[in-house]
Amino acid sequence: DMADFNNTYALAVRRDFAAEHGLQTLEDLAELTHDDPDLLFGIVYEFLERDDGFWPMSETYEFSVEKRQVKTMEIGLTYEALDKKQIDIAMVFSTDGKLEKYNLLVLEDTKNFFPSYNLAVTVRKEVLESHPEIEEILRPISVYLTEPIMIRLNYLVDAGGYEPDEVAEGFLKGLGLID
Q1: Which helix (DSSP H) or strand (DSSP E) does residue 109 occupy?
Q2: What are the structural domains of the chain?
Q3: For 33, which of 62, 63, 143, 176 could close a Cys bridge (C-beta 3.0–4.6 Å)?
Q4: β pairing state of 118-120 and 2-6
Q5: Pairing assessment for the beta strands 89-93 and 41-43 based on DSSP bridges
Q6: Alpha carbon distance 133, 27 (integer Å)
């Protein structure tokens, strides 16, 4: 079974910026792009070049954006630039722990433009055939691994100073899947 979270592309803003401009969705942002020609976007270069990237998304939502408003940068820098008010909108990944660290609002993709990247537990066939009990043991992972939980787990690694294996072990122990 697939998990109930989707780690896809998204656009995020600071919460104060969202409140000031009445932003909740990408459609709200589209309206703002027509009113404010000085908005600055922080976008990862790869996202600019993709068929499901920034410019096709801009067309789908009818953004009014010029190339001068788009700054390319590494993903980690988009969060810092947004936090420091060097940009207004950042391309993010929807389950990144830095969303929590910087208290950002992910704008809702009301037109379902971005593809879904849902997690699914994968086990090699020969392992499952040798240990059929694994299927039942692993089933709760996809049930309990929601988007808010995944953001929190990523936050513990990104900002909390924990190692990924420590966070995973704590999550699995919390579910009672391991001792």
Answers
A1: none
A2: 1-179 (3.40.190.120)
A3: 63
A4: antiparallel
A5: parallel
A6: 46
3-state SS assignment for residue 2: strand
Query: DSSP H helical segments within the chain, as ranges?
Result: 15-21, 26-35, 45-49, 54-61, 75-83, 98-101, 125-130, 133-144, 147-158, 164-174
Question: pLDDT of 50-98, one tens digit each?
Answer: 888 999 999 999 999 999 999 999 988 999 999 999 999 999 999 899 9
- One-character DSSP codes across 134-148: HHHHHHHHHHH--HH
Nearest CA among 159, 27, 20, 147 for reference residue 88: 20
H or E element in which residue 87 lies: none
User: Which single residue is written with the structure tokens 């929190």?
Assistant: 152
Element (H, E) at 92: strand 89-93
